[in-house]
């Protein structure tokens, strides 16, 4: 029967924008890296943070990974570098 609604294919055209953002690029400068709208870019970055957090939680169920502080720290660090400024939804909620 197959999958009726497959997941969207990976879009590596965002790689440059995500890398620039994770290295501290101001949000308004991301337009040099992608043609995505601001809203789409924020949404995709928030989804990336969510995926990193879910991966971290899922790995804690496996003893080999649960005791690996290096992997946990890498995932936390990656999420923190992306989850800033306009991407940080929790911060926006606290401000309202």
Keywords:
96 residues, mainly alpha
Q: What is the tally of helical segments?
A: 5
Uncertain runs: none
Tell me about the biggest sheet? none
Report mean pLDDT, rounded to a whole number.
Answer: 85
Strand segment tally: 0
Our estimate of the beta-strand percent is under 5%
Global morphology:
globular
Report the order of strands and helices: HHHHH
Into which percent range does the helicity of residues fall?
Answer: 55-70%
The helix/strand class is: mainly alpha
Rg is 16 Å
From the N-terminal CA to the C-terminal CA, the straight-line distance is: 47 Å
Short description:
By secondary structure, this protein is an all-alpha fold.
Detailed description of the structure:
The protein is an all-alpha fold and 96 residues long. It has a domain of 51 residues. The chain is 57% helix and 0% strand. It contains five helices and no strands. Helix 2 packs antiparallel against helix 4. The relative contact order is 0.12.
């Amino acid at each position: 029967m197959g999958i009726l609604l497959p997941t969207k294919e990976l879009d590596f055209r965002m790689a440059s924008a995500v890398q620039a953002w994770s290295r501290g690029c101001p949000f308004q400068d991301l337009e040099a890296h992608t043609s995505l709208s601001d809203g789409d870019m924020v949404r995709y970055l928030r989804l990336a943070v969510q995926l990193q957090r879910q991966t971290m939680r899922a790995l804690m169920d496996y003893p080999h990974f649960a005791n690996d502080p290096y992997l946990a720290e890498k995932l936390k660090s990656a999420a923190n570098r992306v989850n800033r400024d306009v991407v940080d939804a929790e911060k926006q909620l606290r401000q309202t």
